[in-house]
């Protein structure tokens, strides 16, 4: 396509030849024949979804006499304002000389994936699930187990936190008479060391501590009517608990010292009222401060990275510079 320098050779019946040259311009006047798709997409935890070319154009059934490509998608991103709507997306297909458009009707729904750096697990033989509403910013945790003195049986949505942290959450609903709350634990094993606050959305808040691995859970029932906001703060190995009716005026609930790892699983949990009865808890206004364990690295003299998870499990390492000018944990 475009100007081409052409040499024309002419030969007569006697074998005599001659040549001339000319510019020949080749034009493509045939546009692509696009076929748009009509997908359903699910909003990500940040409340948006970026459309991909392959989601809005049927490449297998779109045709052209030359190569074609998607040159524009408008809009290219949908968000919570588009939830439960069908958004007409204008897809522009080009072949370098021609452009043509078709409409992809995109149905927008909510996804339920947890935000970045969050995960969820069954603990102690419970069966459950966890999710996140990206538009209402609500967490959901479901579980069918109940904690016993020597082992938890819960489902937990967690993020890994190093050192000091502060977690706050409002428990807004629990089905089937279950319990829900916030927790920090050393591992995902049922008998892990832990500190937790939980509520049944009644008159009492429960404080639970397991000081030793596979040891007995030490619990205390505290009279806190309508205190559905829970807060757990760590400073070193000191843990402080607070409750609140509105998230503003907090009531100090307890403090305790637990000899526990620097990196802990911190998050939200639910449990049923009895075994094999499923409860679903809803959490709002969730915030977690502190450093993620994966954000910290130490570098040895041979430039080999050691993650904090490797270090806390006993791998040797060297610190550089040595001596250091600031504290290193």
Question: What features would you describe in this structure?
Answer:
The chain is mainly beta and 329 residues long. The protein has helices at residues 53-56, 308-312; strands at residues 2-11, 17-26, 40-43, 48-50, 69-74, 77-79, 86-94, 99-110, 119-123, 128-133, 138-143, 154-174, 179-185, 194-199, 204-210, 218-223, 229-235, 238-244, 250-257, 263-271, 279-292, 297-299, 305-307. The strands form five sheets. Strands 9, 10, 11, 12, 13, 14, 15, 16, 17, 18, 19, 20 and 21 form a 13-stranded antiparallel β-sheet that branches. A four-stranded mixed β-sheet has the order 3-8-7-5, with no helix packed on it. Strands 1-2 form a two-stranded antiparallel sheet. A hairpin with a 4-residue loop joins β10 (128-133) and β11. The termini are far apart.
Question: What is the compact description of this entry?
Answer:
This protein has 329 residues and is mostly beta strands. It is 3% helix and 52% strand. β18 and β19 form a beta hairpin.
Identify the notable features of this structure and list them briefly.
329 residues; mainly beta; 13-stranded antiparallel β-sheet; 4-stranded mixed β-sheet; 2 helices; elongated
Helix content: under 10%
Give the overall form: elongated
What is the typical, i.e. mean, pLDDT? Answer: 90
Written as H for each helix and E for each strand, in order along the chain, the element string is EEEEHEEEEEEEEEEEEEEEEEEEH
Structural class: mainly beta
